[in-house]
Specification:
This protein has helices at about 10-25, 30, 40-55, 60-80, 90-100, 105, 115-130, 135-140, 150-160, 170-195, 200-210, 215-250, 260-265, 270-280, 285-295. By secondary structure, it is mostly helical.
């Protein structure tokens, strides 16, 4: 039971009791209805505010912000306890066991004489704990909720440990271009060989993303890419149609040489094809068209 009178000092046990009281049937209407999902953004916001206090070297504010971060931990633990998931004690038990297991150089027989050796021991224990046998497994373990640039840096750091790294910018940019082109070709393959329905593919890809700022930027670029593909497709279709119309007109007045046919079909500029169409409609023979064409 929590005393309504303000005490001089409180402990973690008091914090747990306060949260239980807030979530009780006669507690706070707002706290009662919260879920893991509804306060997800709060966890991120409080972590960023704590990071800001660290950057400003503001210890008074950092103390306050760490309390807000702790509140989020207690809040989520209480929600989970009510649904039979886990308790705050389970959270503490888990992190204690993790710290002991991942510090074999402190609690075991391994050795680490410097920070790099300690980090190496931590990473090795983590890979064993998570069953990460390959670099791909380690990359899959990077949280997808991280901001895009933070996640990219973390992915690159892990990839670099496997030798996937460059000392200069140029080769890295070349690799980026290569990967983007592979992604674009993959999307085209789905469009042409699997779905046939371009918008169905767009909707499927967009469904993979969330609603954060990074996700919205991704969605925008996907839609823009498909719009460009659609416009390119329209232009190409019109060009093919005009080329065929030119060949049909010439076919009525004679045999079209293969070289001329290939040149007409290979032209994609609509303005040029419109001019050729006028020439074809005015030509009485294929030779006459060719003479005008060569000019």
């Amino acid at each position: 039971m929590v005393n309504s009178q303000m005490a001089e000092n409180y402990t973690v046990k008091d914090l747990l009791n306060i949260m239980a009281r807030l979530r009780a049937p006669d507690g706070c209407p707002w706290d009662q209805v919260q879920t893991h999902q509804s306060i997800r953004a709060n966890m991120l916001e409080e972590a960023y505010e704590a990071a800001d206090a660290i950057d400003r070297v503001d210890m008074d504010n950092l103390r306050e912000e760490l309390g807000d971060v702790l509140l989020q931990v207690v809040f989520h633990a209480r929600i989970a306890q009510e649904s039979g998931g886990f308790t705050f004690d389970d959270v503490v038990d888990g992190i204690c066991k993790k710290l002991i297991y991942r510090h074999p150089h402190v609690f075991g027989t391994a050795e680490a004489s410097d920070p790099e050796g300690a980090l190496s021991a931590w990473d090795a224990q983590k890979r064993t704990e998570k069953g990460q046998r390959t670099t791909g497994d380690a990359l899959d373990g990077v949280a997808r909720a991280l901001p895009a640039l933070t996640r990219a840096a973390k992915l690159q750091s892990k990839a670099a440990k496997a030798g996937f790294d460059w000392r200069e910018v140029s080769p890295a940019l070349d690799k980026l271009s290569e990967e983007l082109e592979e992604f674009r070709n993959w999307v085209k393959y789905i469009l042409l060989s699997v779905c046939g329905d371009k918008m169905a593919v767009v909707e499927e890809i967009l469904s993979w993303a969330g609603n954060g700022e990074d996700d919205m930027a991704f969605k925008y670029n996907i839609v823009r890419m498909f719009e460009e593909e659609r416009e390119e497709g329209k232009a190409e279709g019109k060009a093919e149609g005009k080329a065929e119309a030119i060949l049909d007109l010439l076919g009525e007045v004679g045999a079209v040489p293969e070289a001329l046919r290939e040149k007409i079909l290979g032209q994609k500029d609509l303005e040029i094809l419109r001019g050729w169409l006028k020439l074809a409609s005015a030509s009485r023979t294929v030779e006459e068209f060719e003479n005008l064409f060569m000019k």
